[in-house]
Amino acid sequence: MKTDGDKQSWGPGTVTLQLTVNGQRRTAVADTSRTLLQVLREQFGLTGNKQVCDRATCGACTVLRNGIRVYGCSVLAVDAQDDDIVTIEGLTPKGQLSPLQQAFADCDAMQCGYCTPGFIVSATAFLKEIQAPARDDVRRGLAGNFCRCGSYEGIEQAVLAAGSPVSKAVRSLRRSRRPAAKKRRKKVA
Question: Model pTM greater than 0.85?
Answer without folding.
Answer: no
